[in-house]
Write a sequence for this structure.
């Protein structure tokens, strides 16, 4: 066999080989949305904490904010989302959105990670070595998997009042929900978040010159890392947060986490009366 | 012999350069393209007789950039560094290459996921004359101009999307080049101690080049050339849960596990005139960046150029639509891109000209570029004693006109997910993304002195490129700037020369006016000393100064400097990365053995 013939045969074989590995799947327009089983969320489903590390000078952060909006539509009260502005590169220190608490959490859990990045109940998911997940479109799927695989362990009863200006008082009690295998060394964290804050213009807003940030962390009522708790004991915290724009738009977010692994077991969000 | 082997080794990479040289015009440089030596046609036997096995020869290269940080953040008083050691062993039949990377405490700007240390790149290539080349392991390559497939490395930006797998290049007959490849792209260090990451997808592709002038002597007799090419690329990625809520009901997206893209290209040359055309198409490819729409993607490029001694012109037009091609659909940022879209804007190197650089927009754009160069001859009215060069470059980029489909609101993600999103008339144009008009005059005044003067007028849509507007008081997202640059070199003696730069950027927007000055003293053949300062005269009043010394000896170069750099966008070939500010002592070494 001549060299030329061999070469041609080799070429045909290689193209044939490629046909095995190169395919395409065109999805019919009527078949793009597959019904999702009705949410099985009930009293026995835990509530996850979604920490969204975000910024004002961040190209994809508005897209992540939209993804969170969708997540809240899908999972309702089973997801508590908080926006954390803790990187001076993306939210300059002069900005009213920046908080020292958010900077501490970023440094501990996501130092150097590009924004946006999300942490879901401070879990390290399969295939990952760290908590932060930059691919915000995967958050909903991960939350779905987490809710399906991890039962509820605790319930949190929280209430909050204010002086109408910037002083907030919260009362939180954590109770066991599951009967067994409850973790010990629990910590309670109580945060204040605020909705409806107008920041610098960002792409992707309905009114781009009035970009609105929601569920922004304004500060912690019980220190950056919270406090150790025992079950069934009421914990009261109080603090004035001068950076609040309108206390009517604020919520108190309380969550219980593991002092060793940092995993968040349960979270809740309540309005301030 | 060694030279011939090297040529064969590079043939597969050099082939597309022949195919589309206009995209690689010096006004749109690509670091990689510039490094590749172009193969010259020569009368050698196409199917060489088996050669004697030659001894293997080793070569090494080292690049190390270190910073002793004095920035008052978590890097303060620490050493940071990016180091790369490459080794190659080759002869006339085989080439084995590997690279060690030390990025465990990298220079500022890298995220935690990019931190690591190891040997992420290793390959074995076998050659059989010009006819066949087979690579197993990690490799770089591109099809045509790269709009469908481009695997490359850019260390400045931290990009390395090499493919790990197999590649075959065949030239079964003169004028025919066929490539086929399959594998998984690199993503930082996520495959340490593994060949592949099972959580990520794979890329496969094939490419065919036909050079008609090799077959039809009538073409070459008339000083014509005609080349036709086609590519097919497919990515495979596992299904994933992407949930969407619509009208109170919850759904998951039916995601395509295979996404195919294909295209054709044509290059016609006659005399000094060259015409290039390219069109590519991609089927439904919902990703996080396009808000999971199933809208097909496309890119069309047309370019014409003419050059003769002392004069050249270039005209280019590009329309891209939803043509971001990633091997992970949830990815955002600069990693895991399968393709590369040429920016069609001038790539500036002067500090203030590159202060607001344009980044190719993944959603789509219309881009136009024109460039005209002329050299007034010696001893003419405008040329003077030594001649005068002039270059005019104009680029203009606009978004696509998008008509959103009924029920789709781009501000509400869930309304986009799973739809076609919008329709976009082919010639419809949207808002201005970027505009740059620049004139450069270069003049040799005397035997010892020459200078270049450049004026630029730029309009930069900060909201589109960076996602925000710096100054909330601005009435629109644009930064209008006028930039003046003087660059002069004075030859002090046979071995010593002094180069000075003075730049001024005037704008009422963003951080306001900037000024930059540089003095660079060179002593041939080894030493160069430089001092520079970039100062913001507007809102920040910050100085970004740098004092440096460089020593070059043969293939070795050492640089020591002290100063601070500003935070901002660092771009190359239309791909941009945000870099934080740094301050400290910088030490850099590059060498080849």
């Amino acid at each position: 066999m001549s060299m030329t013939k061999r070469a041609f045969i080799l070429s045909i074989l290689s193209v044939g080989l490629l046909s095995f590995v190169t395919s395409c799947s065109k999805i019919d327009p009527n078949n793009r949305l597959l019904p999702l089983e009705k949410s099985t969320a009930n009293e026995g489903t835990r509530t996850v904490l979604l920490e969204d590390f975000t910024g004002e000078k961040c190209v994809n952060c508005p897209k992540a904010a939209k993804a969170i909006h969708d997540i809240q539509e899908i999972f309702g009260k089973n997801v508590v989302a908080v926006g954390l502005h803790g990187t001076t590169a993306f939210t300059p220190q002069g900005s009213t959105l920046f908080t020292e608490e958010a900077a501490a959490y970023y440094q501990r859990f996501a130092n150097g990670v590009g924004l946006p990045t999300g942490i879901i109940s401070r879990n390290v998911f399969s295939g990952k070595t760290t908590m932060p997940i930059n691919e915000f479109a995967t958050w909903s799927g991960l939350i779905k998997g987490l809710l399906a695989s991890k039962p509820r362990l605790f319930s949190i009863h929280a209430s909050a009042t204010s002086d109408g200006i910037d002083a907030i008082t919260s009362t939180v009690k954590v109770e066991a929900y599951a009967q067994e295998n409850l973790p010990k060394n629990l910590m309670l964290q109580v945060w204040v978040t605020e909705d409806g804050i107008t920041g610098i213009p960002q792409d992707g807003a309905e009114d781009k010159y009035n970009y609105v940030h929601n569920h922004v962390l304004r500060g912690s009522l019980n220190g950056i890392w919270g406090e150790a708790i025992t079950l069934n004991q009421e914990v009261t915290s109080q603090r004035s947060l001068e950076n609040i724009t309108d206390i009517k738009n604020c919520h108190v977010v309380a969550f219980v986490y593991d002092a060793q692994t940092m995993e968040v077991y349960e979270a809740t969000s309540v309005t301030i009366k | 012999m060694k030279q011939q082997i090297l040529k064969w080794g590079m043939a597969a990479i050099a082939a597309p350069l022949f195919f589309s040289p206009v995209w690689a015009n010096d006004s749109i440089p690509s670091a990689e393209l510039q490094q590749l030596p172009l193969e010259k046609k020569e009368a050698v036997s196409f199917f060489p007789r088996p050669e004697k096995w030659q001894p293997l020869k080793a070569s090494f290269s080292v690049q190390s950039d270190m910073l002793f940080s004095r920035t008052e953040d978590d890097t303060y008083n620490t050493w940071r560094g990016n180091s790369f050691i490459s080794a190659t062993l080759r002869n006339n039949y085989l080439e084995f290459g590997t690279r060690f990377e030390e990025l465990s405490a990298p220079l500022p700007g890298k995220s935690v996921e990019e931190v690591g240390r190891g040997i992420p790149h290793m390959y074995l290539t076998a050659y059989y004359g010009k006819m066949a080349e087979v690579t197993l392991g990690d490799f770089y390559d591109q099809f045509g101009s790269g709009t469908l497939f481009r695997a490359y490395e850019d260390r400045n930006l931290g990009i390395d999307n090499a493919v790990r797998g197999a590649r075959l290049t065949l030239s079964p007959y003169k004028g025919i080049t066929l490539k086929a490849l399959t594998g998984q792209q690199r993503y930082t260090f996520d495959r340490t101690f593994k060949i592949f990451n099972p959580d990520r997808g794979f890329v496969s592709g094939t490419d065919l080049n036909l050079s008609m002038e090799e077959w039809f002597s009538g073409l070459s007799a008339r000083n014509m050339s005609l080349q036709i090419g086609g590519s097919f690329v497919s990515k495979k990625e596992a299904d994933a849960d992407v949930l969407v809520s619509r009208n109170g009901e919850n759904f998951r997206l039916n995601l395509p596990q295979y996404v195919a893209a294909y295209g054709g290209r044509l290059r016609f040359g006659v005399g000094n005139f060259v015409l290039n055309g390219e069109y590519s198409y991609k089927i439904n490819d919902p990703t996080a960046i396009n808000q999971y729409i199933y809208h097909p993607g496309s890119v069309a490029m047309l370019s014409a150029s003419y050059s003769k001694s002392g004069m050249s012109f270039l005209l280019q037009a590009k329309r891209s639509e939803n043509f971001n091609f990633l091997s992970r659909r949830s990815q955002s940022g600069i990693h895991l891109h399968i393709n590369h879209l040429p920016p069609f804007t001038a790539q500036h190197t002067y500090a203030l000209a590159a202060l607001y650089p344009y980044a190719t927009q993944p959603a789509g754009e219309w881009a136009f570029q024109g460039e005209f160069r002329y050299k007034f001859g010696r001893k003419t009215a405008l040329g003077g004693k030594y001649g005068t060069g002039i270059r005019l470059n104009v680029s203009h980029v606009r978004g696509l006109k998008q008509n959103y489909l009924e029920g789709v609101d781009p501000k509400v993600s869930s309304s986009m997910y799973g739809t076609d999103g919008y329709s976009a008339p082919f010639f419809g144009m949207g808002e201005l993304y970027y505009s740059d008009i620049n004139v450069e005059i270069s003049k040799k005044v005397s035997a010892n002195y020459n200078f270049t003067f450049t004026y630029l007028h730029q309009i930069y849509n900060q909201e589109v490129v960076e996602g925000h507007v710096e100054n909330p008081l601005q009435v629109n997202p644009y930064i209008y700037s006028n930039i003046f640059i003087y660059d002069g070199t004075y030859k002090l003696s046979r071995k010593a020369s002094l180069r000075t730069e003075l730049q001024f950027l005037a704008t009422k927007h963003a951080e306001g006016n900037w000024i930059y000055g540089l003095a660079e003293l060179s002593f041939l053949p080894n030493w160069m000393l430089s001092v520079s300062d970039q100062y913001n005269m507007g809102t920040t009043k910050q100085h970004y100064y740098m004092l440096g010394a460089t020593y070059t000896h043969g293939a070795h170069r050492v640089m020591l400097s002290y100063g601070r750099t500003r935070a901002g966008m660092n771009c190359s070939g239309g791909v941009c990365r945000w870099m934080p500010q740094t301050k400290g002592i910088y030490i850099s070494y590059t060498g080849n053995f």
Remarks:
- Residues 1-45 of chain B have pLDDT under 50 and may be disordered.
- The first helix of chain B runs from residue 2 to 19.
